[in-house]
Amino acid sequence: MIKFIHSSDLHLGKPFGRFPEDVRVRLRQARADVLPSLASLARDHAASHVLLAGDTFDQTTPAPSVIRQALNMMRAADHLTWILMPGNHDHANATELWRQVARDAPPNVILQLEPEPYALNAQATLLPAPPTERHPGRDLTEWFDGATTGETVRIGLAHGSVTDFDSSEEGSSSVIAPDRARRAKLSYLGLGDWHGQLQIGPETWYSGAPEADGFKHDKIPSALLVEIEGRTAPAKVTSLPTGTINWRRVTLDLAGEDSCETAHEAVLPSLRERALTMLDLVITGRAGPLDRVALETAIVKVAPDFLWHRADLGALGMVHDTADLDAIDRQGALRAAADALAQEAADDTLPPKAREAAQAALSHLFSFALEV
């Protein structure tokens, strides 16, 4: 009866302010490119609609160019109908945003700004629950239960939390009954707000964001292809990968006897993948000072391969012996400084930050000595 793509949380225009400008540009472009990607998926799978379950835009006042370019991409995909519903970042009370969208929207873009049934086709009815503010504080899907839709397939679209997600990236916009689909006799309930793809029940899914915007979710960003054959048939849901930027947080735990360079190389993605990878490398465990210097050198060498790269060595402890310190000097002022730093780095009575500072200083001293 109906086949559609369910997606959400595009966050077009997201600034990504904590990254360098060249990285921010690439991340924003990847999000804009999601629209033609969704259109291609719809075409390839003969889907008639794309349902966007909120937060298409990152804020209530996106730049006019962000809005216009998004609508132009939807206009170009005139083989399908786009359903846009507000989320908590672009809620329905953002009147200027939705006024501009309504003014410039092509005929194949349908706005769902009110909680009222909308006929997707002769056999299927959409029940939208558009948030009216950032934190509505109530279940906006309650009206689904009593909505009159005749003999058509009932499809819900909402934006919010069905549980108390620890979603510091977004915050909870509302709390949706996890059994809403059953209560309202929905064939499918498409949700937005949680950025990782997640199935809540047989008929209830978070699509997840089609492009990652952080290291929190470990699943590949995807959209959902939903096929519903009739009112009594279960929805067939297929995950279709969409992400182009790979966000990876990797923990490298070293033992004192490990070859740091070998262990480091083993956790890196292939050279082919690195240009589109955001790598957050957290290094723990213990390493000798010479090994640490070699590891730092290896990190500096590979960092330019990545779209963005950070290595955190703050939790890497140090093990050393006299031979290590001899690499700095056997006597004199440098050796005395190295002995003092090594003693502080190993002193469990000192605060962690003090030991970390001593370890870092000793590492710099080794680097200096090796360069000389």
**Morphology:** elongated
H/E topology pattern? EHHEHEHEEEEHEEEEEEHEHEHHH
Query: Count of helical segments?
Result: 10
Q: What is the number of beta strands?
A: 15
CATH domain fold name of the largest domain: Purple Acid Phosphatase, chain A, domain 2
Given as residue ranges, the uncertain stretches (5+ residues, pLDDT < 50) are: 167-173
Rounded mean pLDDT score:
90
Q: Cα-atom Rg, whole angstroms? A: 26 Å
CATH architectural group of the largest domain: 4-Layer Sandwich
* Strand order in the sheet with the most strands: 4-3-2-1-11-12
* Beta-strand proportion: 15-25%
Q: In short, what is this structure?
A:
The protein is α/β, with parallel strands linked by helices and 372 residues long. It contains ten helices and 15 strands.
